[in-house]
Amino acid sequence: MAHYLIGICGGIGSGKSVVSRLLRLMGHEVYDCDAGARRLMETDAVIKSRIRDEISADVTDGVAPPDRRLLASIVFSDEKMRQTLNSIVHCEVRKDVARHGDGCGVMFVEAAILAESGLAEMCDAIWHVEAPLGSREQRVRHRDGCSREAFVSRTESQRREAELLKRYGWKTVGIINDGVRPLLQQIGTLLDGLPQS
Known about the structure:
By secondary structure, the chain is an alpha/beta fold. The protein has a single domain, classed as P-loop containing nucleotide triphosphate hydrolases (Rossmann fold, 3-Layer(aba) Sandwich). 53% of the residues lie in helices and 13% in strands. The chain has ten helices and five strands. Strands 2-3-1-4-5 form a five-stranded parallel beta sheet. It is globular and about 50 Å long.
């Protein structure tokens, strides 16, 4: 486990990935939860076995990587199955974050659902990236080519996460990504305030 773990979170289109990219360019270790979860689902025997046993043997035989399209069709049409998959994957991601951080002084972890995944509990501090809703919509629609309705739906689906994050307000600071306040300057100020490893 890293000596000091910082979570990077924020709603869709807020600019979490931009902050993570800047931190990497500055030489910091950043664990990307989306990439980590994808890698673990392809390679981790525990995850594959649990998906077979708890979701469907049609998705994986416990050895081969899961059929991602079939898995998505199951979990997006059944909330109970979505929660089951999340509990399987989040557990292993938390372990992977702890392993990944071994020997690190400060490590960052970027996650869309930092609180729901249980990672917020592990973090010593949380950087919440914020941006005006209009800017977020513009970024997401440009990036993903989605409709306004799809953006609104994805924003609504993150409401639970926003509520859960409130309980960590005491260790959360905001980074404003509004195109006016310089991101690098805000990140630099926050880095200057970190404990020295």
